Structure formats: C-alpha cells, structure tokens
Amino acid sequence: MPEKVQSADVVIIGAGIVGGSIAYHLCREPGLKVVCLEREGVAAGSTSRSAAAFRHQFSSRINVEMSLWSGRAYCDFSESMGCEPIFAQQGYLFLYSDPAQLEAASQRVAHQRALGVENVQVLDGPAACSLPALEDTLAADKIAGATWCPGDGFLHPTTITQVYYERAKELGLISRIGTRATTIERQNGKVTGVRLADDSLIEAPIVINAAGWWGNEVARMAGVEIPLVAVKRYLYLTNQLEPRRVSHFPMTVFDLGPYYRPESNGLLFGSDDRPKKPGGWQSYPPPSQDFAALLEAQDGVPEDFGRSLDGYGIEVLAEIAEFVPFFEEEVAIESIVCGYYEITPDEKALIGWDPRVGGLLHATGFSGHGVMHAPATGEIVRCLVRDKEPPFDIGPLRIDPLLRNEERDDPEVMVI
Ligand SMILES: Cc1cc2nc3c(=O)[nH]c(=O)nc-3n(C[C@H](O)[C@H](O)[C@H](O)COP(=O)(O)OP(=O)(O)OC[C@H]3O[C@@H](n4cnc5c(N)ncnc54)[C@H](O)[C@@H]3O)c2cc1C
After folding, report:
1. Taking burial as the number of CB atoms within 10 A of a residue's CB, which of 15, 246, 252, 281 is the most buried?
2. Looking at residue 301, what is its pLDDT?
3. What is the location of CATH 3.30.9.10 in the chain?
4. Model confidence over 319-344: pLDDT tens digits?
5. Residues with CB under 6 A from ligand 1
6. Which residue spans of the chain are classified as CATH 3.50.50.60?
C-alpha cells in the first residue's frame, strides 16, 4: 500500500527523466518533504521512447549551457550515483552537403567554443569521411564537411530515471506510482494542493509540472494554458549488423534531417521531417488538444509510418542511403518505437514559475532535448524552489514572454 500523505512542501507531477532529476535534486535539500505522483510508471512517457542522444552542439546560449551542466553530471553519474555506465561518449557528427550550411555551422561552433565547449570542431569533407569510427562508410563526394564533438554521444534514459528515482527515495522522496493528479487546488491565486483520482488531497504550496507532453493537461488542472503541443515522432530499429562494424558509430545527422546511431546489435534511425513536409512538422501529423486520444495513440504506428514500401521509414532509410551506401543493401527495419515531443512555439523548454498561479512551476517543453537536459533542469528547479539564483541565466526559458505572445531571447535553430 502506498503511504498516505496529507501534506508536503512540494508535489512533483510526473516521474519521467525530468521529474526524476527534480525529485533527486530537491530531496538533497535538508528538511524538504517531497512527493512525486506518477500516473503510469517510472519513465513510462517519452523518456523510454527517446533516441537518447546527447550533444553540446546548439545555436542558443541557454541550450549550450544546459548541455555543459548536464554533460558534467552525466560524465560523473555512474560513479556519483553508484550505477552501471549510462553515457556512451561516441561522439555526435553533423554532416553537411551544402557549403553554405557548413559555413553557418562553423559559426555556431565558434559560439559553442566561446561558451566553453572544448572539443567541438569543424572538419572538411575528407576529414569527416575518414573519422575512424565511421569505417569508410560515407559517400565522400556528397559531404562538404561536418561539425564533430567527440565528447557527445548517447545515454540510457530509463536507467538514469530509475537511478534518480531510487536515490531520491533513499533521501526521503514519497513516491506515488500509479497515482493520477486530477486537479491543482488554488486559493487566492496560489496553489494549495493536488487532488488525486481517488479524490484524496495532498496539501502543498508548490506543485511542479514535470508531465512532459501532458504538460498542458496539468496546467489546465490549475486553470491555465501553456503554449505546448505534442508532436508524434518515430524511431526505426534495424536488423542485426556486423557489430564490429557498427557498434562504434557516433550519432550522425545529415543536413539537420535524417540521423542514425548504433542500438543493440544494429542501428536506430529517424529524421526531423520539417523541411520536407508541407506546412512543417506540426501538421504531420496534426497536433491535437484531445489528450485522451493522444495517450491512446502514443504507441500507435499509422500505416504511413510503418514498414510499407511507400512508408515514411523506408523514405528516411533511402535518404540516409544516399550518404551511407551500405544502408541500401544491408539495412532493413525490424521494429518501430514512437512517442511525443513536447513542443513550445520556439522549441525551447519552459522552466520557471507561472506568473498566473503562485506556487506552480513548469519544467516541460523540451522538444528533443529533455533527456540530455534533465540534470541541469533538476538543479535549476532546486534553486528556484529554494529562492536561489540558478547556475546560469535561464531568462530564455521563462514562460512570461510567450504568454504575452512575444518572442523569447536566444533563438535555437539546432532542433532535430
Ligand atoms: C522519438 C523521440 C526521440 C527523442 N530523442 C531525444 C534525444 O535524442 N535526446 C533527448 O535529450 N531527448 C529526446 N527526446 C525527447 C525526450 O524524450 C523528452 O524531452 C523527455 O523524455 C521528457 O521527459 P519528461 O520527464 O519531461 O516527460 P515524460 O518522460 O513524458 O514523463 C512525463 C510523466 O508524467 C506522467 N503524468 C502525466 N500526467 C500525469 C498526471 N496527471 N498525474 C500523474 N502523472 C502524470 C506520465 O505518465 C509520464 O510518465 C525524444 C523524444 C521522442 C519522442
């Protein structure tokens, strides 16, 4: 039987990687009584459906800083948390076929280096194609150059979430798995507690919305809307391939679109389809405000996105094969994983207090970056709850300008 609590200092809604990191960081604060509510299971949402890539290569200052902070935490994670390795630093390679795009990417690299990313670099075409980990697999005549960061790579999100959550429980977290929040109670414009599906109430002055793509549903429980839509994304897992050949590949992205990386004994691939689909990715498929229908659809693979010969997966495979010829002959789709990106208008996260409801703090809207930026998010939320300055300026992540229909500072163009 879960422990029945009537009150807490903080209630977190959601036990994905973001809620897990927040729980861990808050529980390290002495004397704070923290409850985490999770409707389904630890890491049951987008966290377990992610490509799990980690990179420092962003265009905005804020996302580079989120990666610098989180990267240090992930490098140290298995030792400090006492768990198996969770970070495969096999590098992250952005390849470009267009010299103008490469030039723009080179300027971003200068910006990243100025912010403190030490090992990111620009490579010309021959240098990119002869990276040892790639084993001469690229079509060299198609590659103008690349940006390369060998310290980047990919993570194990489910393990990280479970470890955060277990360590938080050891530090006193009150865990309520299988418990759905239904209403955020308010009085005089301030949060007073969270009502649960069984109609019981946990009184608390602070509620943290860590509900991922359900973030708007949780905001509505407090009588407000946040600018967040859920957009379906697909990952394709391939047949087994010669492990010695593929297991050392980095995360590799072509022209900010199709990408692949090793997974088990094969590969995982996907794409950012925005440039190619009419109306941009938000219309493919259309976002919905019907959250019950979206929940049903989380695992559903529509026919167009399946393995059929005219399906999206085969389309992406063919795009990658243009740059990596062995894809055409040797790679086949074996299974499909899908889930939702949680997307704000400028595709940057929403972290901070809601100015309309005292005590409501949002930590959602991470787009394709929530796994990599979870450690920094936990630390930022800890600082906000304790009324301290976060480790760096989080102005570009605040919700306030979006509520006034204004653009936030520090735009991000590197959204995959
Ligand atoms: C295909 C795909 C590829 C991706 N690739 C990457 C990548 O390469 N790198 C990267 O960093 N990120 C990637 N992402 C994004 C990343 O997965 C998400 O940003 C991240 O997992 C968000 O974590 P979260 O904890 O906020 O949300 P979630 O993991 O979705 O967790 C939210 C939790 O809240 C719970 N919840 C919701 N409502 C309630 C309620 N009312 N009461 C109680 N509990 C509730 C849900 O059950 C869920 O467990 C990818 C996402 C997808 C879909």
Report:
1. 15
2. 84
3. 89-151+229-343
4. 999 999 999 999 999 999 999 999 99
5. 13-19, 37-40, 44-47, 49-53, 180-181, 210-214, 218, 233, 235, 339-341, 364, 366, 368-372
6. 10-48+157-227+346-403
The DSSP symbol for 7 reads: B
339 C-alpha vs ligand 1 centroid, how far in Å? Answer: 8
Query: Was domain 89-151+229-343 assigned CATH 3.30.9.10?
Result: yes
Query: How deeply is 114 buried, as exposed, middle or buried, from its count of CB atoms within 10 A (0-12, 13-18, 19+)?
Result: exposed
275 burial type by CB count under 10 A (0-12 exposed, 13-18 middle, 19+ buried): exposed
According to CATH, the topology of domain 10-48+157-227+346-403 is: FAD/NAD(P)-binding domain (3.50.50)
- For residue 184, list its beta bridge partners: 194
* Two tokens, residue 367: 């787009």
Maximum Cα–Cα distance across the chain? 66
The pTM (predicted TM-score) of the whole model is 0.96
Q: What is the pLDDT of residues 76-129, one digit of tens each?
A: 999 999 999 999 999 999 999 999 999 999 999 999 999 999 999 999 999 999
